[in-house]
Write a structure and sequence with these properties.
14 helices, alpha+beta, seven-stranded antiparallel beta sheet, 28% helix, four-stranded antiparallel beta sheet, elongated, 536 residues
């Protein structure tokens, strides 16, 4: 049986504003009047016509007779002392997503409630997980108490469908209603049709026909209902009714894809420092390793999530190029990434470690003559993992071949994570590791015509006498790729040379001598010499 929890966050925008004001308050300054629950307080938002209307209000303002959608002028006429502040819808949405991540302490699948403003909430799929928290009633009570501890008023309900849980959380009588497959229809019967998540036009039409409760719809002909309300809500009254009762499925989209491997631990006393977090991480990692080993999997991405006591979550992720299950390597990567990136707030009362990406780890046995090479590749992969954890994925790069024979176009830099660079033995020592960008001109070159290597040249104001030379290596131009300066590309002859002091260089001549037939374009210009790199 599917078990869905609906969390209705009562006056959510007001709760977000209250927490924001409390954090911004200075110790010596007097409290903001909006923090006093006895003062009527409202958040204002402009509608399409430009009029200021009430977007959200606290219980004191609601008790005084104000309502959402009422204009600010009418509200002030009723309550002159009403405190008003502009609403920040974007901040409310960000806070709701952050709360959804925090709610993963109870379920790996947490979705945002797509209801209209003022009915904000969450959906948690807790199928098969309630026993971990002492049962369904204990789980709902823990959710409500934890949310209340963060200053968030909420009502919760559990049912086999999202629609039924949503209706019971907002209109169900008593605290924390729980519905099963056998009782869901009876519990929904006495609720108003508003509880089916219908638009105002459909609700008004149902009331005109005397259909005030969900139970009054049970005996109605389905064909007539579908035809009568076909122009109402985009989903439709009949479909909403079937979704609530479980006759039609309803998909939920989690805020974050659920991790297949997930280990978490709650603490009686919050962890207030990084030492406490680092001390408890090995135990979580060991439990996660056992789960991975059982399935023959290795982790490539790990995320450590800390659940704060103030209703927010803090995260730290590390990536690995090769899948692994070594706890010591994991700990080293988290230290390299920096536990200081975790924001503990007033403390963490739970930690969760997830393997977000995994791959099969198959046992392999290499030949004896290749054992050293395999060990070197593994060590290089570990080094790349550590550097990436410390510096960031975009700062540890490795060259990747590109379909071009022009040296500056023959490769590009890509993140090294997940790639073990393989050197081409034929090119080691023949090409410089780093190229000069752009190539630098050589002055006063002395060479033999037509294709001799330079015997002397000046580069960076230093004259160099060449004692050894190798070449040329001729590279034809890529005529289909125009040069940035608009000039026609020319043939290059590359040389590897060594001067009297042992310096080794990679230089080229652009253009060719003796190229004098008609129509040769830029090849008829005088050749020029360029320094392209320094060889190791």
């Amino acid at each position: 049986m599917r078990r869905i929890v609906s969390v209705w966050l009562i006056d959510w925008p007001v709760s977000v504003r209250r927490r924001s004001l409390e954090r911004a308050r200075r110790p010596a300054s007097p409290p903001d009047p909006a923090l006093d629950p006895a003062n009527p307080f409202a958040l204002i938002l402009k509608n399409r016509r430009g009029a200021a209307v009430i977007h959200a209000l606290n219980p004191a303002a609601r008790k005084a007779g104000l309502r959402r959608g009422q204009t600010q002028a009418d509200a002030r006429a009723m309550i002159p002392q009403l405190l008003c502040q502009p609403a920040d819808v974007a901040a409310d949405e960000r806070a709701l997503k952050a709360l959804a991540v925090w709610a993963e302490r109870w379920s790996p699948s947490v979705s945002l409630d797509p209801s209209e403003e003022g009915l904000e909430g969450l959906f948690l799929d807790v199928t098969g997980a309630a026993h971990l928290f002492g049962g369904e009633a204990a789980l709902l009570a823990a959710m409500r108490e934890r949310l209340a501890g963060t200053g968030t008023a909420a009502r919760v309900a559990m049912a086999p469908t999202p629609g039924a849980a949503w209706a019971l959380a907002r209109w169900g009588e008593g605290r924390d209603p729980i519905a099963t497959d056998e009782t869901v229809s009876d519990l929904l019967a006495d609720l108003p049709v508003d509880a089916l998540r219908l638009d105002e036009r459909t609700i008004t039409g149902a009331r005109r026909l005397g259909l005030k409760t969900i139970g009054s719809l049970y005996a109605m002909p389905r064909t007539g209902l579908a035809r009568r309300f076909r122009d109402g809500d985009a989903i439709g009254l009949v479909r909403r009714l079937d979704q609530a009762r479980g006759h039609v499925g309803e998909a939920l989209t989690p805020v974050r894809p659920p991790a297949r491997y997930r280990i978490w631990q709650a603490f009686a006393e919050p962890l207030g420092d990084m030492a406490g977090v680092e001390a408890r991480l090995p135990e979580l990692a060991a439990d996660l390793t056992r789960s991975l080993e059982r399935d023959g999997q290795g982790a490539k991405v790990l995320t450590l999530t800390g659940f704060r006591t103030d209703g927010e979550a803090t995260q730290l992720s590390v990536r690995m190029g090769l899948p692994g299950r070594d706890v010591s390597i994991w700990m080293r990567l988290f230290r390299e990434a920096g536990f200081g990136r975790l924001e503990l707030g007033f403390g963490l009362d739970a930690l969760m470690l997830t393997a977000d990406e995994t791959e099969v780890m198959a046992a392999r046995q290499g030949a004896l003559e290749t054992e050293a090479e395999a060990k070197q590749a593994e060590d290089l992969a570990v080094l790349i993992d550590r550097l990436t954890a410390r510096l960031g994925e975009g700062r540890v790069l490795t060259p990747e071949p590109v379909d071009s024979w022009i040296p500056e176009r023959a490769e590009r830099l890509v993140p090294a994570l997940g790639r073990v660079p393989a050197a081409d033995a034929a090119e080691v020592g023949r090409r410089p590791i780093l190229l000069l960008d752009p190539p630098e001109p050589l002055e006063d070159p002395v060479f033999d015509l037509p294709d001799g290597a330079p015997a002397r040249f000046t580069w960076r104001r230093v004259s160099r006498r060449i004692v050894r030379a190798e070449g040329p290596e001729r590279l034809a131009p890529e005529w289909w790729r125009p040069r940035p300066d608009g000039r026609e590309a020319r043939t290059r002859d590359y040389y590897r040379v060594e001067d009297g002091e042992g310096g080794r260089y990679w230089l080229f001549r652009e253009g060719r001598y003796g190229w004098d037939y008609a129509g040769a374009g830029d090849e008829r210009r005088a050749p020029s010499w360029w320094m392209h790199g320094v060889l190791a």
